[in-house]
Amino acid sequence: MNDQRRDPPPVEVRGLVKRYGELIAVDRVDLTVCAGDVYGYLGPNGAGKTTSLRMMLGLIRPSEGSVRLFGRDPVLSVRALDGVAGFVEAPTFYPYLSARRNLELLAAFDGGGARERIDSALETVELSDRQADRVGGFSHGMRQRLGIAAALLRQPRLLLLDEPTTGLDPGGMRDMRVLVRRLAGQGITIVLSSHLLAEVEELCNRVAIIQRGRIVYEGEIAELKRAAGLTYRLSTTDDARALAVCRAQPGIADVRCGETITFTADAAAVAELSRALVEAGALIRALAPQGATLEDLFFSLTEGRADGEAVPPEPAPELEAVP
Amino acid sequence: MSSLALPRSTPSPAAAPGVRTVYRWELAKLRRQKRTYLGLGASIIVPILFTLAIHFRHHHGHGDFAFSSYLNRSGLAVPLVILLFGAVWMFPLITALVAGDIFASEDHNGTLKTILTRSLERWQIFAGKALAAVTYAVAAILLDGTVAVIAGCVQSGFNSLQSLSGTIVSAPKALELVYVSLLVYLIPILTILAIGLMLSSVTRNSTAAVVGTLMISLLFQLIGILPGMGGTQPYLLSTQFNAWQGLLRTPIDWSPIIRAAWVCAMYGVPALVAAYVVFLRRDVAGG
User: Fold this and answer.
1) Of B274, B95, B68, B108, which Cα lies nearest the Cα of B190?
2) Do residue A110 and residue B25 have CB atoms under 8 angstroms apart?
3) Which of A10, B29, B52, B254 counts the most CB atoms within 10 A of its CB?
4) Which residues of A touch B17 (CB under 8 A)?
5) What residues of chain B have any CB closer than 8 angstroms to a CB in chain A?
6) pLDDT, position B224
7) For residue A28, what are the CA distances in angstroms to A64, A210, A213, A323?
8) Do residue B113 and residue A92 have CB atoms under 8 angstroms apart?
9) In angstroms, what separates the C-alpha of A154 from chain B's closest C-alpha?
10) Chain B residues with CB-CB distance to A132 below 8 A
11) Tens digits of residue pLDDT in A159-182
12) Are the CB atoms for B260 and B234 separated by under 8 Å?
C-alpha cells in the first residue's frame, strides 16, 4: 500500500490541449488513473477520446499540458511506454505477413522475452490455428484479438484499449469483456475507451466522460450515480398538468417527458411533489424510484434534455457543468 | 477467447532492440513486397534486353555515345552503357520504388502507430528503414551491373576495353573499373534515395513519393538541356550520374568524382535531414 502511494500513477494527464489550427480537439483535460483501476474513457464520436489516447501513447505531441505514464513523459522517450501496451482505433498489422510473423516483428521491437510469449498470447486470443495465415485475410474481429495478443507480448502493467469490442459479434464482445476482466484481475491497470456504456458500467470502476474535448466528469461510477440523485418514474391521471407541477416544484430536476415522466429528486422533494400533484388534481397512478444507469448519466452530461432544453442535469458538487 | 491462458509473466533476459533489429525486419518486409521484386527484376531484365538488342542490331551501326563502338567487341562495355542511359529514369525509378514507399507504406497500412508504441525510439526506426532502403539500392545497382557484365560477356566476350582517353584497358582491369564505376554511381543514387525518403516521410503517400522522386530527377535532366543553363551543369544532380566516367580516363580523373561527392551531399544531406526531422516530430494522427 505504501509502495502504491509512493509510485507515480499509471496515467497522469494535466492540462492537456491539442489544437489543429482553430479546432481544439482536446481542451485542458486532466485525468488520473490509479494502479489497479479499470478506467472507462467515455464520449461520443469526435469528442476527443482517441486524440487523448494518442497523446498518452506519445503518437501525438500535445499543444499544451503534459502526460505522464508511471511518471515518465512519452513524448521525450519511448521508455515511458515500458510496461504500457494497447492500441488506438483498430489495431493494425502488416497485411502481407502472417499473424505469427507480425507478432515476431513486434516482439523483436519489444525486446526482452517478448518472443517467448507469442505462443501463449496467440492461445489467449484463440488465434493459434490461424497464426500462419496472412493478416490481410483476417476479419476485423480477428485483428482486434491479434491486437490484444500484440499488447500482451509486452507484459503490460497498463493497457490502453480504444474501443476494443467495436466490430465484434456478441460472442466476441463477451469474450473480450471476459479477457479484460481477467487482465484486470491480474492487477493490470486498464484504460478502456468506449461508447458502449453498458460495457463500461460492467467493467470499470472509474470513468471520465469527455464532451467536445473537455472532461465533464471524472471519478467513480458509483459516485457519479450518487451525485446525480435517484431517478423516479411518474404516471398520473393528467400528465400534462403533472409535468408543469414537476417543473415548478423545488428539488425536482432533470424532468423529462416520454411515455412517463421521469425526474431526479431526493426523498423529501418527492414527498412534497406528491402533495403538490394531488393539490393540482393530477392523481398519481404510479411513482417508482429507479437507479440511474450510466447511459442515463452519460446522455444527461453530453446531450441536451429530451425536451430540447440545454444540457446538464442538476450538477452535484463533483460534477463540472458543460460550459 | 472463451478459454483464457494468459501469457506467463516470467521475465526473460533482456535483449534490447535497436537499429539492427529494425534493419533486419525491414529487409524481411522488403522480401515480402512486390515492389522490391519489380525493382530488382528491372535490374535483371533491362541488361538482358539491352544485350539482346545489341545481338539483333549489330549490323545496323552504333550510336554516338561513350563505349558505343565497343558494345560488340567487349561485354564489359554493356554495364557502362547501361549506366549512361539508366541515369535518365531507370535507376532513379528503381531507387524511388522502395525509398518513396518505406515510410509512406506505414501510413498506408496504418502500422506506424503499431511500431511506434513498442520499445524503439523513432530515430532507431528511421535509421533502420533508411539503411534497408540503402541496402536495396546498392543491391539493385550491383545486381544490374553483374547481370550486364555476364550478359555482355556472353554476347561480346570478356575482352579488353578502350578507355575514354583512347588507351586499351585489359579485361580484368576493365572489370575492376566497372565495379568501381558502379560504386561511384551510387553517390547520385543515394541522393535520389534521400529525396525519396524525404518525400515518403513528408507526403505519407507512396505513389506521390515515388512519382515525385522521379519527377525531381527528370527535372534536373530538363534543366541540364535548357538553353542558357549551361553554367548550372556541373552543379546539377543529373550531371553527377556521369562522374564515374572519370575512372575510365588515363590517368584517372578524380575531379568529377570529388565534385559528385559534394554536389550530391548538397542535395542529399538536407533531404535526409528533412526526412528525419519530419519523421521524428510528426503527429501520428492517422496511421
Assistant:
1) B95
2) no
3) A10
4) 108-111
5) 1-17, 21-22, 24-25, 28-29, 32-33, 109-111, 113-122, 281, 283-285, 287
6) 85
7) 8, 11, 8, 13
8) yes
9) 8
10) none
11) 999 988 877 788 878 888 888 888
12) no
Taking contacts as CB-CB distances below 8 angstroms, the residues of chain B near A173 are: none
Contact A81 B118 (CB under 8 A): yes
| DSSP conformation class of A187 | T
Provide, as residue numbers in chain A, all residues whose Cβ is less than 8 Å from the Cβ of B118: 78, 81, 106, 109-110, 154
Q: How far apart are CA A309 and CA B252, in angstroms?
A: 87
Q: Is residue B234 part of a domain?
A: yes
Residue B69 has pLDDT above 80, yes or no: no
Would you list the DSSP string of A42-90?
E--TTSSHHHHHHHHTTSS--SEEEEEETTB-TTT-GGGGTTEEEESSS
Which positions in chain B touch A155 (Cβ < 8 Å)?
A: 7, 9, 11
- Domains located in chain A, CATH noted: 2-220 (3.40.50.300), 230-291 (3.30.70.100)
In chain B, the number of structural domains is: 1
* Interface contact B118-A88, CB threshold 8 A: no
pLDDT band at A228 (very low <50, low <70, confident <90, very high): low
| Chain A residues whose beta carbon lies within 8 Å of the beta carbon of residue B116 | 58-59, 78
User: What is the extent of the structural domain holding B143?
Assistant: 19-281
- The CA–CA distances, whole Å, from B110 to A108, B8, B249 equal 19, 29, 51
- Do A109 and B118 make contact, defined as CB atoms within 8 angstroms? yes
| ipTM given for this complex | 0.84
Contacts across the A-B interface (CB distance below 8 Å): 139
**Closest Cα in chain A, distance from residue B192 (Å):** 26
Place of cell 515500458: A82
The identity of residue A20, as a single letter, is Y
Q: Do A97 and B9 touch (CB under 8 A)?
A: no
**B29/A121 Cβ within 8 A:** no
CA separation (Å) from B114 to A18, A78, A91, A110? 21, 13, 7, 11
Q: Flag whether pLDDT at B49 surpasses 50.
A: yes
Which chain B residues are Cβ-neighbours of A184 within 8 angstroms?
Answer: none
Report the length, in residues, of chain B.
Answer: 287
3-state helix, strand, coil in chain A (%, to 5): 40, 25, 35
Taking alpha carbons only, the member of A59, A60, A49 closest to residue A161 is: A49
Helix (H, G, I), strand (E, B) or coil at B251: coil
pLDDT in tens, B212-269: 999 999 999 899 888 888 788 899 999 999 999 999 998 999 999 999 999 999 999 9
* Cα A138 to Cα A46, A98, A99, A165, A175, distances in angstroms: 27, 10, 9, 16, 18
pLDDT, tens digit (0-9, with 9 covering 90-100), for B188-213: 999 999 999 999 999 999 999 999 99
Residue scoring higher pLDDT (B59 or A234): A234
